[in-house]
Amino acid sequence: MADAVETLLEIEQIKQLKYRYFRAIDCHDWALFETCVAEDVTTALDSGKYAFSGRARFVEGLRGLMDRPTLLSKHQGHHPEIELVAPDRARGSWYLEDHVIDTENGWMVHGTAFYQDEYVKRDGAWQILSTGYRRVFETVTAPIPEQFKVISCWFGLPE
């Protein structure tokens, strides 16, 4: 029974890690985001469209794409399937739903995808070692309809 409880605790820590990862992206909290990924992380986001090798490049790359107060996003991970493959290794699959609004350039994206992750536990903490997703679908609305208004925003209202 103890092994089952320990396994569930490890899986819960990995779930919390992925939740922090999504929250950090949406809040543009790049210091928090950096703690979620391993120094030697590799990525293949959007079927490899956005591929990065190493924490510094990943943080810099994502920050360059997303760190504007006029870029609003929602990333939600659902239905995690996590498997511990060693005491310090795991892999997981997540169903992503994302919604991105670019008020500056006048477009919105809504989509879903499946994330495939690998995790590593170092110094007692889980981190993402590799991550990537493949789209199930993606829709784009451009220009943003005139009747669409952002009336509240974490970063302040866009002008």
From TrEMBL:
<protein>
    <submittedName>
        <fullName>Nuclear transport factor 2 family protein</fullName>
    </submittedName>
</protein>
<dbReference type="Pfam" id="PF13577">
    <property type="entry name" value="SnoaL_4"/>
</dbReference>
<dbReference type="InterPro" id="IPR032710">
    <property type="entry name" value="NTF2-like_dom_sf"/>
</dbReference>
<feature type="domain" description="SnoaL-like">
    <location>
        <begin position="7"/>
        <end position="129"/>
    </location>
</feature>
<dbReference type="InterPro" id="IPR037401">
    <property type="entry name" value="SnoaL-like"/>
</dbReference>
